[in-house]
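During the second half of the funding period, the structural biology subgroup turned its attention to how the target accommodates small molecules. The most pressing case was uridine-diphosphate-N-acetylglucosamine, which had performed well in the primary screen but for which no bound structure existed. We therefore specified the complex as follows and requested a full 3D prediction, including the ligand pose.
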Amino acid sequence: MSASATARGTDQMILRGGKPLSGEVALKGAKNALPKIMVAALLTAERCTLRNVSRIVDVAIVSDLITALGGEVTYTSPDVLEICAANLHPMERSVLKEFTGKSRIPILTCGPLLARFGEAPVPSLGGCRIGTRPVDFHIRALQDMGAQLHDESGNALLTCERLYGNKIRLDYPSVGATEQVILAAVRAEGVTELSNAAMEPEIMDLIMVLQKMGAVISVDVDRVITIIGVKVLRGFDHTPIPDRLEAASWASAAIATNGRIFVRNARQVDMMTFLNRYRQIGGDFRVTNEGIEFWRAGAKLRSSALETDVHPGFTTDYQQPFVIALTQAEGVSIVHETVYEQRFGYIDALNRMGAQIQLYRECLGGLRCRFGQRNYKHSAVIVGPTPLRGAEINIPDLRAGFSYVIAALVAEGESTLSNTGLIERGYEDLVGKLLRLGAQIVDA
Ligand SMILES: CC(=O)N[C@H]1[C@@H](OP(=O)(O)OP(=O)(O)OC[C@H]2O[C@@H](n3ccc(=O)[nH]c3=O)[C@H](O)[C@@H]2O)O[C@H](CO)[C@@H](O)[C@@H]1O
Ligand SMILES: C=C(OP(=O)(O)O)C(=O)O
């Protein structure tokens, strides 16, 4: 967050609504790809280069983690990062403690650390508080590959002589657990066949990197990924895929504020499901070789019924910003959140701003969901269009934070958002981008 825009406090932003956002923003490497690719660099002693690196907090956390493990992390230009993990050492308890609760990434070091040192402590993770987010699939998969779990006075430690390939099936296509298995299997002995794997574009990007490093990985039909372990991996030079989640956030901002935003570097192939839904509710877009431009097709937006799902479904991380657009749509919209049990914690504040959103415990959709009949309010019914008015809001998580920014820009009057630092986990230079799009930030 730039110093000027946060003049009211280090973690606060005051926005005045009522003006459409118009102009251009450019995407850099994806939040959900970059940090995992940085972890892949721990699998080799050779130098690795990452380009178009976004200066988001989650990248800074992983840079610090790699440094604390003895790796070298250097920016050779503002967005080019070099990593060399030649002098890596096992994770000490103090390092584990320092990175507890900071992001989702530290657990992905388990595979590389087991491969290099035969031991890896199991970190407690951070990330958005949108559900319980256990790591049981990660641990079970590593155990299936030969790791042993020890619980030393509450500190879980994995050890192994070496990891072995195995047939592993995930109970649910978890992104993190899929990445865990891939990162562990590339240097395991033998073949690993992972079924019910997640297939998100960011996972495919990680696989591209590992293939550049010398790994042998095939992506088969029906969510099966096969990895043949190799003894040595080499360095890589890679430009991660652009952030489709940020692209969808700006697209939602464009139609909610009735503006027009060109998102440079946005890729149609990663966003097809989102683009279809965008068009259904009355958004339009133009795809060019340089990116995608987003705007409203007509004066009014239309309501919709949708369910979040694993890729290629409607990604859960699109959900919160999109809901703000739905508050401006004519009629009744339904959103069934099937990935996280508690991703509607941000709704109360929107209702205070004038939105009419009711939450339900029932599954309001056709998908078989793990949260039905379990007391989680995971379906939302949105009645629109509703004018919004400014409010004081505390940001609970990353995407909720961006959705409140959009709501504040739609609203009449001023809104004070606090805890804006959380947004920096996934959006680089948010204030600069907002200002260039014409947002009215008080005191910026
Ligand atoms: C840093 C990163 O890439 N974060 C993304 C990643 O999170 P993350 O990798 O944490 O999300 P997962 O795909 O693992 O989680 C999906 C669901 O599986 C459950 N689960 C997961 C693992 C496990 O061991 N046990 C278990 O029950 C979770 O509680 C959740 O309900 O994928 C999510 C789903 O697309 C996105 O919302 C996050 O932005
Ligand atoms: C849920 C998200 O992130 P994380 O998994 O890092 O908490 C997100 O990016 O929307």
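Two results from this model are relevant to the next phase. The first helix runs from residue 34 to 40. The mean pLDDT is 95.
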